[in-house]
Amino acid sequence: MSIAAAIRERDVAQLPGKRDEDWRWTDLRGLIRTAPEPSAAVDVAQLGAGPFDALTDEVLTVANGQGAAHVGVEPGEAKVVALRFVSRGDGAHAARVSVEVEAAGRLTLLESYDGEGGYLSHAGLVFSLGKDAVLERVILAGDAADGVSVSQAEVQMAPGSAFAQVVLTTGARRQRLETVIHHPGGHAELRADGVYLLADKRHADLTTVVTHAATDGRTDQLIKGVVRDQARGVFQGRIVVAEGADRTDARMGHHALILSDRAEVDAKPELEIYADDVSCAHGNTVGALDEDALFYARQRGIPEAEAKALLTEAFIGEVVDRIGHETARDIVRAWAADRLRG
């Protein structure tokens, strides 16, 4: 099963479907019955600015699968890079990008997705962190309502490194943002956060798999979602603590608000622990807005729609506030507020 191979070979039988346990809520095989034609080339010069372009002089654009293939940071170097994935039209395309941060390097990767049309897209990313390297990955996923988009990232950390990620998405016809992280212990630190804001019939799947392979590793994960209309949010989070990975400290939390009777949230948080002397926990809640808080806001003269937006902004604010890059944090906060109030 390979989405990139399915696109390359125009073979829909290679797409994942509901019989694949990790894809049962994001069925691509049942949705796409005929392989789309390859996407046409896009003139990058005709594209407008991306959401993070103003924050750096290094902007890499991958348009309909064509463009930059590597981001590198030398030992001790510090960089801010904007990486933009653009999809246009009704075709299919795939891209692969490698990101390497060498020992003691620092990278802020500002990643975005935007699209127009009924495309099928796949982005495969491979991250490698050297000893004591630091990488913060901030993702804004604004795919088209008719698009099918899959982003799959694999992260290899090193002892003493730090990897922080936050994903914000408004979903698509089908969308999956997947991150698989190999945690080496050795006082390496991982933060893997996310927010999904879904309306209409949009679908978003945030899936993470973290494997702690050795002692003294830390993982902190917080996912929050808001769904309304007939939207569907999916969270699958798995933390595996391998045999011998003692003194692992791992925390996972998923919390969602459902704002209509026809919206849906599917959540599957998992802990697999094969070691002793660990501190691991997960929490999962799905509910509605606090009626008392909404009533109080209405009593203060705030219209209902605005009151709901304010409460949901406060709900997701805990995740946004954890972004380290201050200017990127402000852009993300404004991006989320626009969509909640829209």
UniProtKB/TrEMBL annotation:
SUPFAM superfamilies: Stabilizer of iron transporter SufD (SSF101960). Transmembrane segments: none annotated. One of its GO terms (biological process) is iron-sulfur cluster assembly. It comes from the Bacteria. It holds the Pfam family SUFBD_core. Residues 90-315 form the SUF system FeS cluster assembly SufBD core domain. InterPro entries: Fe-S_cluster_assembly_SufBD, SUF_FeS_clus_asmbl_SufBD_core, SUF_FeS_clus_asmbl_SufBD_sf, SUF_FeS_clus_asmbl_SufD. This is Fe-S cluster assembly protein SufD. It comes from Phenylobacterium kunshanense. The lineage of its organism: Bacteria, Pseudomonadati, Pseudomonadota, Alphaproteobacteria, Caulobacterales.
